[in-house]
UniProtKB/TrEMBL annotation:
Name listed for the protein in its UniProt record: Rhomboid protease GlpG
GO molecular function, one term: serine-type endopeptidase activity
Annotated keywords: Hydrolase, Membrane, Protease, Transmembrane, Transmembrane helix
Keyword DNA-binding: no
UniProt-listed SMART domains: DUF1751
Gene Ontology BP annotations: proteolysis
Length: 294
């Protein structure tokens, strides 16, 4: 994990569009994100005219994020800027780090929740970058996935703080220390930016979101599930003369085994984060019972 996976910002006239640039199995979100980022990067290169600098192509100008673009209510940029990159090394390191840590995090939360988490991280990072622009008056736009990637990295660091990471692919260091080091570098970059073209505020925003997501136990998908809400159906009034047949209850052990199977299938399809408190208790009780079996 190196310093190359950074967002880039540019100053100057941002143009009419705001400009700027600054697993396995069912875990499909990582694959989709990689494909989307690579596809948009190719479009950036194809649309770039000779003599254009990195991030000055028409695709970047339409998708990048800046304070000016939000003032024009171009809200889509809060997400799309995170799929553009300024150079091959920029996208390579961002996608490598996303793949390296995302494939650890995605199976824990499930693909849908992971995708929602990642996109929210990009939005939060973009808002942090724009917030700094309100303070310092910098008109630079931003592109790059580093804010969302930082959210994934710091969430993974919260989950596995003592995991050993090879810094610069050589030096072994505990994940928590590496994460703190990167956060301090970005904090210094925000306090004393100088001539840096790195969007340090966006990095810090993604990192803070990843930490808060784990610390407060947040979940994104339940907030987006309102579309599945349906009007409750009216129950017919029971007829006392009709006694429906009820098959005999299976033995308690058979009931428990069946429930455990259902819960394990749910974990496989939707991730552990989808479990209710009752389902978690069933797994705990089953684990104790299975240990006591002869």
């Amino acid at each position: 994990m190196g310093f190359e996976n950074r967002d880039y910002a540019r100053s100057g006239n941002s143009g009419g569009y705001g400009g700027g640039y600054g697993n396995s199995g069912g875990n499909w979100a990582i694959n989709y994100l990689l494909v989307a980022n690579i596809a948009i990067f190719l479009l950036q290169q194809l649309s770039r005219q000779p003599g254009m600098g990195a991030g000055n192509d028409p695709v970047s100008n339409y998708l990048s994020l800046s304070l000016h673009s939000l003032e024009q209510f171009q809200i889509w940029r809060l997400v799309t800027y995170g799929f553009c990159h300024g150079s091959f090394m920029h996208i390579f390191f961002n996608m490598y780090v996303l793949w390296m840590f995302g494939r650890i995090v995605e199976p824990i939360y499930g693909s849908k929740e992971f995708l929602a988490f990642y996109l929210t991280g990009i939005v939060v990072s973009g808002l942090c970058h724009v917030g700094i622009q309100l303070v310092d008056g910098n008109i630079a736009g931003v592109i790059g996935a580093s804010g969302g990637v930082n959210a994934v990295v710091f969430l993974c660091a919260m989950l596995y703080p003592r995991m050993t990471i090879l810094f610069m692919f050589v030096i072994p260091i505990e994940f928590r220390f590496l994460a703190v080091g990167y956060a301090l570098i970005d904090l210094f970059g925000v306090i004393s930016p100088g001539d840096s073209v790195i969007a340090h505020a966006a990095h810090l925003g993604g990192a803070a979101f990843g930490v808060a997501y784990k610390y407060f136990g947040w979940r994104i998908m339940p907030l987006l599930s309102f579309g599945n809400w349906k009007m409750p159906k009216r129950r017919p009034k029971p007829n006392p003369e009709i006694r429906p047949y009820r098959p005999p209850e299976p033995p308690a052990s058979q009931n428990l085994d069946s429930r455990v199977d259902e819960i394990l299938i749910k974990i496989q399809e939707q991730g552990e984060a989808s479990l209710t408190d009752e389902e978690r208790k069933i797994l705990t009780d089953a684990s104790k019972k299975y240990k006591n079996r002869p």
